[in-house]
Amino acid sequence: AQTVTQSQPEMSVQEAETVTLSCTYDTSESDYYLFWYKQPPSRQMILVIRQEAYKQQNATENRFSVNFQKAAKSFSLKISDSQLGDAAMYFCAYRSYAGNQFYFGTGTSLTVIP
Amino acid sequence: DAGVIQSPRHEVTEMGQEVTLRCKPISGHDYLFWYRQTMMRGLELLIYFNNNVPIDDSGMPEDRFSAKMPNASFSTLKIQPSEPRDSAVYFCASSSRRGGGFTEAFFGQGTRLTVV
Fold first, then answer.
1. Which of B33, B56, B109 comes nearest A43 by C-beta?
2. Among residues A83, A109, B24, B105, which is most buried (max CB within 10 A)?
3. Looking at beta carbons, which residues of chain B come within 8 Å of A102?
4. Rounded to whole angstroms, how far apart are CA atoms A46 and B4?
């Protein structure tokens, strides 16, 4: 089974600064999807960004961007101009192109300091 | 679309009682997942369905847990009898295949279960 590793249980960032959350995964597949989800205190799981492995270009969504390194099996999330509302738990997730279930990391708790 | 709908939002029950959690996936989605979230174990996949058929239930912790999907718009997760260690947030999520690939999982708001 695929595994997803988030090695940073907790991170903090000053408001308006930039922070990068790390994620690595283990797979033998060539086609797959990667996701970052945000879970604020409301506990709702919200999709932040997705990346298809066959795309070389890194995905971006406003202040959120990823650094996808396929050979290194790394998928980090960069949050620019951090805002207080970005404070949440962030989960990295993997899904194979032909497969079914999602594999989630253990999460990184992000604190934004005013 | 209203998104994935779970009920109840909160459930407090006594040990030994039966608990039923409910989920309505997004219309047109053919995959449905049940997850359990705890501080100690994070997000655990319990079971998932494809076209109403259970595909993998290896994450169901014990025979006390069962899940059904009688039709494309409804699923239940039942715990009988419940135990304090079942206390957790239970999420339902749905997904579909789009353009040959899979979309992300759309999550409900979860059910916080407390067994006393």
1. B109
2. B105
3. 33, 45, 93, 95, 105
4. 12
